[in-house]
């Protein structure tokens, strides 16, 4: 009898405690959801320039921003693919009352000298740019020894210098308007390097550092900088990756195949943008653990990477 009473009492206490945690948690969740919705509503009419919009994550980002009634400016090399994305946008979201239809500006990020001119062209059409999403990029498959310096430079040119040049070109107008947002699509490989990805990892590490430096400077002008570092996404990135000789790798890697859906990653990025997050890592636990190890227990990370190299290079 006595023990039953005790049990009842302790259950009661446990229940109250659970409620005391649960109710604020629910309130917090609701508050967050309401705030997110309010922030997303502020996207209406914003002018968003997206590079690499012809495929994969860039295409998914175009859908996500367009869905929230932004005017999107689609940039990449392949005009035909951009046109396909534009008609997809118009057909898929025909219920969306966007003020302005998507704009297509074909650009080659490796032609650095052409980029300021392209930005001028965009500005002459839209008047200003609210958000620049540096997403266009190319990956790499090959050892350091088998990769020509030409390939290193090509990847650096698109992933790093292309983004840097475009950012410089949009910055002065943003500074004048005292607002703007620059987004960098980096990668987990901007935080840690894997064997056989030297050029790619280096270009994304460079991007992260550039963004961190810019963030501090831009804060003086009310301009935000967000760096997104996703893990594997199911896109054509590995197919389009360059090998050591500069040829197309042409294969869908198993890791890429099993990666996140581009739509999911795009949604996470757009949330980070409206919440003005400085950075966001979008990945499963293992890559996050690797980032942690690299920072706080580097020798373990190096051993793991040696093993990874041994395993994959044994097949050569
Ligand atoms: N997939 C992943 O696992 C993964 C993981 C982390 C980060 N990321 C990053 O996500 C971004 C998008 O890649 P994705 O996965 O969507 O791969 P993707 O399907 O191959 O898309 C790459 C995009 O970049 C554009 N691009 C490539 N070279 C260009 C150049 N010289 N000038 C202009 N645009 C160029 C391509 O368009 P054109 O060919 O028409 O020019 C294409 O739209 C990249 O920055 C990538 O590093 C991807
Ligand atoms: C990959 O490339 C093919 C051929 O260009 C294209 O049909 C497909 O839509 C691309 N995939 C993604 C996710 O963009
Ligand atoms: C800073 O930028 C935000 C939009 O990102 C804008 O609403 C606000 O008015 C800007 N503040 C100033 C002081 O210009």
UniProtKB/TrEMBL annotation:
Pfam families: adh_short (PF00106)
Molecular function terms, GO-annotated: oxidoreductase activity
Entry keyword annotation includes Oxidoreductase: yes
Record keyword Transmembrane helix present: yes
InterPro entries noted in UniProt: KR_dom, NAD(P)-bd_dom_sf, Sc_DH/Rdtase_CS, SDR_fam
GO biological process, one term: lipid metabolic process
Gene Ontology cellular-component terms listed: membrane
Transmembrane segments: 12-31
Domain Ketoreductase: 46-236
UniProt keyword terms in alphabetical order: Membrane, Oxidoreductase, Transmembrane, Transmembrane helix
Highest taxon of source: Eukaryota
Function, in words: Putative oxidoreductase.
UniProt family annotation: Belongs to the short-chain dehydrogenases/reductases (SDR) family.
Name of this protein: Ketoreductase domain-containing protein
């Amino acid at each position: 009898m006595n023990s039953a009473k005790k049990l009842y009492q302790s259950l009661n206490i446990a229940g109250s405690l659970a409620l005391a945690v649960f109710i604020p948690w629910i309130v917090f969740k609701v508050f967050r959801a309401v705030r997110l919705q309010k922030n997303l509503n502020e996207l209406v009419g914003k002018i968003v320039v997206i590079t690499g919009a012809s495929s994969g994550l860039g295409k998914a980002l175009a859908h996500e921003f367009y869905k929230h009634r932004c005017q999107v400016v689609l940039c990449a090399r392949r005009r035909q693919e951009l046109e396909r994305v534009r008609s997809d946008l118009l057909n898929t979201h025909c219920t969306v009352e966007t003020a302005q239809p998507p704009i297509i500006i074909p650009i080659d990020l490796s032609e650095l000298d052409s980029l300021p001119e392209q930005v001028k062209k965009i500005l002459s059409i839209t008047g200003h740019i609210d958000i620049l999403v540096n997403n266009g990029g190319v990956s790499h498959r090959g050892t350091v020894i088998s990769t020509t310096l030409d390939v290193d430079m090509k990847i650096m040119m698109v992933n790093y210098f292309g983004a840097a040049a475009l950012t410089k070109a949009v910055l002065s107008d943003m500074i004048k308007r005292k607002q703007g947002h620059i987004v960098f699509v980096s990668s987990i490989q901007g935080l840690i390097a894997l064997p056989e990805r030297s050029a790619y990892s280096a270009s994304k590490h460079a991007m992260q550092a550039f963004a961190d430096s810019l963030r501090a400077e831009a804060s003086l002008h009310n301009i935000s900088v967000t760096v997104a570092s996703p893990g594997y996404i199911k896109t054509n990135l590995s197919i389009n990756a360059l090998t050591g000789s500069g040829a197309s790798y042409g294969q869908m890697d198993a890791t890429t195949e099993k990666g996140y859906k581009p739509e999911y990653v795009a949604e996470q990025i757009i949330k980070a943008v409206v919440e003005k997050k400085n950075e966001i890592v979008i990945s499963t636990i293992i890559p996050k653990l690797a980032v942690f190890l690299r920072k706080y227990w580097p020798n373990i990370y190096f051993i793991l990477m040696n093993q990874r190299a041994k395993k994959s290079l044994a097949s050569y």
